[in-house]
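Thread: Modeling a multi-component assembly for a lab meeting

Hi all, long-time lurker, first post. My supervisor asked me to bring a structural picture of a complex we are working on to next week's group meeting, and I have zero experience with this. I have the sequence lines for every component (909 residues in total). Could someone generate the structure of the whole assembly? Inputs are pasted exactly as I received them:
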Amino acid sequence: MLEYNNKLGDIVDQCISKAKKSGATDVEVALIKNTSETVSFRNQKLDESDRAENIGLSLTAYINKKKTSVSSSNLNNENLEKLISRCIDSAKITPDDEFNSLPDKELFFKSSKELDLLDDTHIENNKKIEYLKEAEEVAFENPKIVNTNGSSFSESKTEVILGNSGGFKNGYKTSNFTAYCEVVSKSNGNMERDYEYTSKRHFENLLKPVELGSNAANFAIRKLKPQKINSGKFNVIFDKRISKNFLNYFTNAITGSSIYRGTSFLKDKLNKKIFSEKINIIDRSDIKRANGSKYFDNEGVQIQNLSLVKNGVLNDYLIDTYYGRKLNLSSNGRSGGTTNLYFENGDKNLKDLMNSNKKIFYITETIGHGTNIVTGDYSVGAAGMMIENGEFAYPVSEVTIAGNFNDMFKRIVLANDLEFNYSTNSPSMLIEDITVAGK
Amino acid sequence: MSKILKNSELDLSSANSIVSETLNKCDDGELYLEDSKSEAIVLDDNKIKSSSYNSNLGYGLRAVTGDVVAYSHSSDLTKKSLNEASKNLKSTLSSSNGTYNFEIKKTNKKYYTEQDPIEAKNFKSKIEILNQVNEYVRKKDNSVKQVTATLLGEHKSIEIIRNGGEILTDERPLVRFNVSVMLEKNGRKETAVYGIGGRQNYDAYLKETDWKNVCDEALRIASVNLNSKPAPAGEMQVVLGPGWPAILIHEAVGHGLEGDFNRKKTSAFHNLVGQRVASEGVTIIDDGTLENRRGSLSIDDEGTPTEKTVLIENGILKNFMQDRLNARLMKTKSTGNGRRESYKHVVMPRMRNTIMLNGKHTQEEMIKSVKKGIFAVSFGGGQVDITSGKFVFNCTEAYEIIDGKVGSPIKGATLIGDGPSALKEVLMVGNDMMLDPGIGTCGKAGQGVPVGVGQPSLLINKMTVGGTQL
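Re: Modeling a multi-component assembly
Sure thing. I ran the full set together rather than chain by chain. Output:
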């Protein structure tokens, strides 16, 4: 049912049979072909063009319970043969791991509805430039926008083919269109930057250039002349751009590997309440045209839709074949991570959240990687706006926020403004009583 | 002679004629060829969890005119593919009328061996080392619950074919050894990572004392953190230890001094050359010429020999780091900072080994002088907003200082500061300069490149510490 290039499919078959002949008991081969064209535009003219045509093949050979992998961008026959024999040689001296194996056959992808992941449209470079020109022009209409860090438009087509000696072979094509605009605002020597970005499977679903440019400009301008506030406890609203990161922290803590290895603050929390009962988290692979949708996972396993958190209770882990065997669970198709991951809408609108206290710190940006999945500790740099009596009062920067997820998760309150713009999406989020370090 | 083309379907004379035809009306450009091999062997949870070997071959054809760059790259090293790339570049720059800039200074200096570290040590002995590491760590401390040990090796051959037939080459080895541990005691868990590496064979880093030292450090940091208390929140004095904490320098001023952001005037430093940006006594260099260091390069990815570039001298901003394009547009010369992650990426000005030189104070003096503050010894990563100048970095080992004495360990916290003003707050520069152990990777615009940092102990008057305790 899915379509892929037969010539590339033949290479996959050949590699499987070569590896088998050389002594592999099982083999898995993935081939990815990508072509892309990116145009960058800056100060009303072309800045950079980048055209790419790349192919990559990776092969994992099993000799019973021994396993090694090789990969290459060079599909020349002689090179592939050399690599396969290197792989087999290494596998022979790699120690056994009883959990190494291909997925169970009954878990392989069988069928799915059409997901409409490929838009074959080719956008000529001059069309891309027109789009970016319009976006930058709109941004520069505001005199406070004085410079640009560049805008870019990229179009890419990717083909994935996966085969293994267990009889699985399938592949499909996807497309992606991305536009990005980053501008610099200035006022009395203070410079700030901000961006807007849109990324879709289909060209027609992209933000219009006017929105891209004006959003970037408005974001950069609202940051001008920021204040560093005094340290204290604040009720904090996370803008949708930031609130979705909490889903990533959460899923990092419920992958099979972090659960099995015990390196997760959510170990032993299955079937326990970790959020308030209003919180539901879904991971769905089969949303039409969505950025995170896919037909099968990195091992060819059918991807189940998961209700990871239901009424605040942790309901499931993200499981691939290897950690599934270790944890005595079945793979749910998460080799390669989550698909379309989201918090379901809350029952308040953003305005209500903004009015929930006289003073609220509205965060539009975090900086740094201060999350610890083992302990749940969280500490990052932050910038945004102070909201007073429901209205934006002044921008804030050079502060940090800190807490622990075990406690923060339980206090998450969600707005009802969920949109599907990325592969991970969240409504705006309120958490009360967060420590902000400033002056 | 091209070693890389010898094994491909593309011959050198075709490559040369396509290069000259593509670049003859341009200001700059080259054909960049890359043949790289890499391996990763990971021990985790008492087992060799994965071993992989990767071999990559590809080219990037670049044409530059004025401030416009046209780039086309592919893993398909054939005449047909290169011709298509050339066609694409010519159509992008159809109205170009530049003067090709030929001159690249030559060097015979090499700062590392040409050997391929992957082949210099057999696979079996690599597995043995990882098993020994696992055993050693688990035996040493019974609160160890998890050990991950990783060997990463790489060998990258590059060739830069310039208009006129000149070929510049470099062979770059790179290895890294990492140990990460998780300890659990009285219901508390903490992790720590430590590693070493550089541009030599594995054996230069894996003598028994070396790998044991890496294990001991990881264990030490994790055990310190098992006893850590919540970190304070707010502005206070900070003493930084020597070595790896120099990622402060990398984030606070390094990125802001890269040529591209300054040519575009989007860096907070773009109009500050000749002005004071740091306290007296602060001198910062970016050095590509240190032997065997992770951030060193004999030539950069445009073929320019690297050098020791003075960025800040006694607190005064002296130079930016340049690649050829930004140097030409800013009417200066390349400092050999033109780097790219691989043939799939365009060249940008990037740091090499960024180092603050010694001052005259001792660490003891610094700690003694602090009434209330923190002593930060070990770090995770950092990040900077070039335009506003705000930067952060994450402590992974830190202690409180009370009345001139080092007190309890505190939990990991983010420190935030403002680049153009942070180094003006330096009160003392130490006399104990140390380079990092060889583990840094810097990310910029989606490209990761190996870098080094170094610094002596530092006392900073005021930084915001992102803890939870008010």
